[in-house]
Structure formats: C-alpha cells, structure tokens
Amino acid sequence: MQKDDLKSLITHIYENLLTNIDNQEDANKEQVTDYLRDAINVVESISNDKIDSIEHAKLAFDNAYKEIADKSISSYEHTNKRFEKLTKMHEETLISYNNTIDLPSITDKFNDIQSHMFDEVKKANDVITKLSAQVKSLEKDSNLDGLTKVFNRRALNHYLNQICTNKNTNNMHILILDLDDFKAINDTFGHIAGDKILIFIANILKKVLRDGDKVFRYGGEEFVLILNRITQKKCATITSRILEVVRGNRLIYKGESINVTMSIGGTTLTQEDSPDSVIARADKALYKAKNNGKNQMQMELVDGI
C-alpha cells in the first residue's frame, strides 16, 4: 500500500468527520470518539494486497454517516410519537378536570407542559426533515449498494465508461448473475429472507473472486462481475466454482433451509464495445442460460472470440 493512498484515506476520514460534526445539532465528544473508533477499525481491516481496499474504506465512511442519520431518524420518530401520545393524554386530562372542578393552577401547569411538548415535536420534525434530505443526498452520491455493501449500478456505469473510453479491455470478462426463481423465494419466505439471501450471495462472491476482480449489484437479484486479466478458460473455471459454491450452501432462516441457485451469462470485452453493447451481450447469454434449464453459465461471444 502506497503512502499517498493512506494520506488520501486519512484526509477523507478527517473531512467526513468535520461534515458529521457540522450536521449534528448537538455534537459531543462521545459521538466523535465513536466515529474515531470506527475509523480505527476500518483502517486496521485494510488489506495491503487488495487494490480496492482504500476505495472500499472511503466508501464505508461515505455510508457511515448515512447509517448514523438513519438511526437518528428512527430515534427522533420514536420520540415524536411519544410526545404526540403524551400531548393527547394531557389534552384529555385537561378536558376531564375542566368538566368537574376548576383548577386554574393545574390547568396553567398542564398548558406549560403541553406547549413545551409541542415545541419538542416541532424540533423533532425539523431534524427528521433535515436528516432525511441528507440521507437522500448520500444515497445519490454513494457507489456502494446499501444492502449488500458491494458496488452499485452507479459505480458499474462509471467503471464501464472508463474501460470503454480508454479501450482498456485486454483479457477482461463480464458476467451477469441472476438468482433462479427469486420471486418464488420471496413469496414463500418473505422479503426479509430475500434480503438475507442477497447479502449471503454477495459475501460468497467476494470470497470466491480474486484480488482485482469487481462485484456490483446490478439491480434486484442480479449481480455483475468484472474479471480482469483472465483467459476464457480461467473465466469458465471461476464461474463453475461460483455455481458450485452457491448451490452447495444453504441459508437457514427461521429454522428453514433455503437452497439457492443462479444462472450466469458471460462475454468478453472488445475495444469496439460500449457499456450498453457489452451488457446487452452478457444479458443475451444469461437469457440462454435461463432457457437451457438455469443453474448454469452460457457465453455470448463476438465473432467467436
């Protein structure tokens, strides 16, 4: 790992921390301490051998504040509901007392409490609105899929544009992976189980792939792999390994064993390719794999190459 890479990461952490503090209405040392503790964990987890480690570390910090904001929104929404419930109780109490006896001092006190709670509810709503806007902004700019923590479609488009523009396609393969009968799994076990399967598959792919290969969540139950510096024979070996590992592992969800398979369409990149053309060709190969019985890989080549 190069010194410049580390300097770039630390600068990113520093800038992200300042943004985090600025966006907190009541920032405190505990929040800063927690952030720095997370920073230490991320830096310690960086591998000297993986060229994507620095990039993933930066993206982890980009998503860290999103997770903090999500938790804050949940917390404020919970507080908001409690205040609204208490406010309603106080209103009912006031009506009850006013219908029986005249207690001006108690009424004044309740009014003060009620006014204070209305103010707190307004503050909570303002914070929810602010944090929601920040989360949307972070999601728009993020290159990581929020669920599986692999690269997302936005990152794929950017990466393919760079490759095709620079004509840097030597021995590069693209694979589109689609989980078989995923809708049936969702219908049978529920969408939470479906989400867990997507995370499960993403983790398998990250373990099976070599350093320098990249995995993207393309959308829904589809993933895209970009394999660098690889022959067609080696690509077939890796693909067979992926199919074998996926079909050989079962996810246990609420005591139920869920078996998953996937179909894969692959192609090689050429210097004449655009992002759209190479994806279309891989997608055509995926269609063949589905029609031929699923749980397999098919290739779609250009002029037999």
Q: Which features does this protein show?
A:
2 domains, 12% strand, alpha+beta, five-stranded mixed sheet, Alpha-Beta Plaits
The CATH superfamily label of the largest domain reads Reverse transcriptase/Diguanylate cyclase domain
Order of helices and strands: HHHHHEHHEEHEEEHE
Strand order of the largest sheet: 2-3-1-6-7
Name the structural class.
alpha+beta
What gyration radius follows from the Cα positions, in whole Å?
26 Å
Question: How would you concisely characterize the structure shown here?
Answer:
With about 300 residues, the chain is α+β, with helices and mostly antiparallel strands.
Detailed description of the structure:
- The chain has 305 residues and is α+β, with helices and mostly antiparallel strands.
- It has 2 domains: 3-141, no CATH class; 153-299, Reverse transcriptase/Diguanylate cyclase domain (Alpha-Beta Plaits).
- It has 9 helices and 7 strands; from the N terminus they run αααααβααββαβββαβ.
- It has helices at residues 3-23, 29-45, 53-98, 104-141, 153-166, 182-189, 191-208, 232-248, 275-291, and strands at residues 173-179, 214-219, 222-227, 250-253, 256-259, 262-268, 297-299.
- A 5-stranded mixed β-sheet has the order 2-3-1-6-7, with helices on both faces.
- Helix 1 (3-23) runs parallel beside helix 3 (53-98) and helix 7 packs across helix 8 (232-248).
- It is elongated.
